[in-house]
């Protein structure tokens, strides 16, 4: 299953086009496992485990970091959506990512699409103006 999930995520093919020659099972079964493992927190736990191994081996470089986000339109809405400031107020989400100097992801979160240009976990008043770039 893991092989099929990684193949689809890496190549971007549709689940139903997962080649049977890989021996990973059907695309739909792989998709269900991805969904179930995501809901069970398996990926988050795996990420934390890998980061702790990298920290223990002193392989993380915190001398620099990069933070970026992208806006994704949410056609079906959901709990982490908000009116988009760039898409006529339609529901959307922002995916935020921070990586260390070598590009290793340290954290990723999703917020509503109407979130301002400040740190997504900033507890400051929501009415506060966005930080200038």
From TrEMBL:
<feature type="domain" description="Insertion element IS402-like">
    <location>
        <begin position="1"/>
        <end position="47"/>
    </location>
</feature>
<dbReference type="Pfam" id="PF13340">
    <property type="entry name" value="DUF4096"/>
</dbReference>
<feature type="region of interest" description="Disordered">
    <location>
        <begin position="109"/>
        <end position="133"/>
    </location>
</feature>
<dbReference type="InterPro" id="IPR025161">
    <property type="entry name" value="IS402-like_dom"/>
</dbReference>
<protein>
    <submittedName>
        <fullName>Transposase</fullName>
    </submittedName>
</protein>
